[in-house]
């Protein structure tokens, strides 16, 4: 496809930043949403081709701040989940150890009781 003398790139084509000052060397150009809700970027250094950006493209401004906060929250939740799993495993190991201790402790007590003065 063509647009104003430019070729549109197929989905998945990598953006080339730094070709236009509006991309600030790091993100897609929004242009009021005229070329996609996620913006657009040049896909060739000579500006002959471009493509609409997708959800995997880098964000900037307020959207970038929100993305970073969401990512930090996801990381915290992942750590808490890992801690919870470790706690569950430790609790299960503790229960298994307590059961083993009860069995070990219980057996000698029975034999000790049988050998007590009452058992004679």
TrEMBL record:
Out of the domains of life, which is the source?
Eukaryota
Extract the ranges annotated as region (Disordered): 86-120
**Composition-biased stretches (Low complexity):** 96-120
Supply the name of the protein. Answer: Fibronectin type-II domain-containing protein
What is the organism of origin for this protein? Alexandrium andersonii
